[in-house]
Amino acid sequence: MKNQSQNPFSSGGKAMNVAPLSLVKLLSCLFFFVFGLTFGIILCFNYKSFSFNLLVTNRHFSIFTSSTMTTTSNTSSNNNNREFLEPPNVIMHDMNDQELLWKASMIPRIQEFPFKRRPKIAFMFLIRGPVLLAPLWELFFKGHEGLYSIYVHSDPSFNESEPQGSVFHGRRIPSKKVEWGQVNMIEAERRLLANALLDFSNQHFVLLSESCIPLYNFSTIYSYLTNSTQNFVEAYDLAGPVGRGRYSHLMLPVIKLDQWRKGSQWFEMDRDLAIEVIADNIYFPVFQNYCNGSCYADEHYLPTFVSMKFGGKNSNRSLTWVDWSKGGPHPAKFIRTDVTPEFLEKLRSGNSCEYNGKKTNVCFLFARKFTLNALDRLLRFAPIVMHFNM
Ligand SMILES: *[C@@H]1O[C@H](CO)[C@@H](O)[C@H](O)[C@H]1NC(C)=O
Ligand SMILES: *[C@@H]1O[C@H](CO)[C@@H](O)[C@H](O)[C@H]1NC(C)=O
Ligand SMILES: *[C@@H]1O[C@H](CO)[C@@H](O)[C@H](O)[C@H]1NC(C)=O
Ligand SMILES: *[C@@H]1O[C@H](CO)[C@@H](O)[C@H](O)[C@H]1NC(C)=O
Ligand SMILES: *[C@@H]1O[C@H](CO)[C@@H](O)[C@H](O)[C@H]1NC(C)=O
Ligand SMILES: *[C@@H]1O[C@H](CO)[C@@H](O)[C@H](O)[C@H]1NC(C)=O
């Protein structure tokens, strides 16, 4: 039994003795060769339509798999396609990072949307525990449903959930540990971007911390971002140990010293740039390998990558105000007594910069670092100074 099913090549010696059988084999081999050749030629001529068919099949496949990932038990395919077009409110999923980044990097070839859509802004909170200044943000978002989406990345050890009815309820994405200065901070930022990209309506992406506050009301920030022709990723060249000093020659030949940039990690970018960031598998691995720890990847990866590849569309400034005037590795914190209408007014309009090629005094839309005990004053002044509608 075992011998009969053996590989014919291993028993080649015996087969040579049976002449008629080998002639039949030879003829059949020739037949298959000619048949194969003909088939190959036909296939070559039809290559164009063949590859097109393959593309169509692939697209069907990706829509099908993506919808099965987001729904657990409902397998009605009509329903699932709807959810692919307009993502459901539940943002939890069981994709790992590799699967998530791959799925989020897909770009529709047809530019027009097959459904009614208003561009949304994705507010992405990179935080440790709870959203500290949640009541202020609740006030900020109130009345603007449908024009924003919220994503929260917090420490995996934090297991409390925001209360039902809060805009932050159910907005946590699958998160991993983040350590200050480590390259895993960028991994978390890419995770936030990828989750937000799954919703096709999100056109602008803002990264915020737990100590960030908005300096303007929602409608002003929405117009500022949606009308902007540029991205807001701060980038500058800095000599000395905390600038070029953090560059490593091991990054050659991908990144040269004169391409090394520094800037704040708190960015605002459009959908095109967000896709480039999560799809980057050339520059980011260099940072993963050679910019971990005291290199502070969060202050260099985006400024360097964006300047090298997409500098022309970058404003090179940040929209998030912060006070470095006190010195040291961390910016100044603001407590209750610091928060006055004059102080907030100064942050809102006491600066000068360019917006869409014109001079303006609206340079910062957000500010940090505000502590929890400043919350009651912020809530009190927001409607007056920031024109939050009540
Ligand atoms: C699937 O969806 C349909 C329509 O929304 C609903 O009526 C049905 O109960 C769902 N089935 C399951 C198993 O959730
Ligand atoms: C959250 O974690 C703490 C310990 O860190 C534990 O005591 C508590 O039961 C957890 N709560 C929930 C809702 O899982
Ligand atoms: C800015 O965008 C808003 C809506 O996003 C629009 O109503 C407004 O006209 C725009 N302003 C300018 C100056 O383009
Ligand atoms: C980065 O450094 C930390 C410790 O400093 C280490 O735990 C981590 O594995 C390193 N990550 C990479 C990707 O090398
Ligand atoms: C920002 O820097 C890039 C080069 O990195 C440059 O091409 C671009 O013009 C700069 N943008 C502005 C607004 O100055
Ligand atoms: C938002 O603030 C601007 C001033 O920054 C004000 O003109 C506008 O009326 C406010 N919008 C709402 C809806 O309150």
Question: Care to describe what's here?
Answer:
Strand 1 (120-126), helix 6 and strand 2 (148-153) form a beta-alpha-beta unit. This protein starts with 11 loop residues before the first helix and ends in a 5-residue tail after the last helix. Helix 5 (97-104) crosses helix 7. The chain has 13 helices and 9 strands. The longest helix has 27 residues, at 19-45. It has a 4-stranded mixed sheet. By secondary structure, the protein is α/β, with parallel strands linked by helices. Mean pLDDT is 84; it is low at 1-18 and 48-78. The protein binds 2-acetamido-2-deoxy-beta-D-glucopyranose (6 copies). Keywords: Glycoprotein, Glycosyltransferase, Membrane, Transferase, Transmembrane, Transmembrane helix. One of its GO terms (cellular component) is membrane. GO terms for molecular function: glycosyltransferase activity. InterPro entries: BC10-like, Glyco_trans_14. It is found in: Membrane.
